[in-house]
């Protein structure tokens, strides 16, 4: 609490005057409002049913069903993996590279604990890809070395 009373401040909101361009756009919007409302009604009324039925029957329904009846232990696993990412963000203070590497690495470690077969398959593919990239880099450096 303040020991001294403060004088009452009288504030008043003053709106900036509108420019000619803003006035013209505002006037045009008011004129076109009934037509745009009619156009939106026409478009959404006829095509919305088709779009909704195609989305529900496709990818989104599978995801919805999976989240309604998840496999045993799915949500605790998801929580542990997400928590590992949050810890990675907490530990990665300072550098932007750390903010990319730490959460991804910790989430990858957490995921590999719960899904070891998939982690081995991904590691094999990543190892092969890394070997190919290093071999291409070696060939490129060797070609540059021989040219000079």
TrEMBL record:
The chain crosses the membrane at residues 74-92. It is found in: Mitochondrion inner membrane; Mitochondrion membrane. GO terms for biological process: cristae formation. InterPro entries: MIC26/MIC27, MIC26/MIC27_animal. It comes from the Eukaryota. Component of the MICOS complex, a large protein complex of the mitochondrial inner membrane that plays crucial roles in the maintenance of crista junctions, inner membrane architecture, and formation of contact sites to the outer membrane. Belongs to the apolipoprotein O/MICOS complex subunit Mic27 family. PANTHER family: MICOS COMPLEX SUBUNIT MIC26 / MIC27 FAMILY MEMBER. This is MICOS complex subunit. The lineage of its organism: Eukaryota, Metazoa, Chordata, Craniata, Vertebrata.
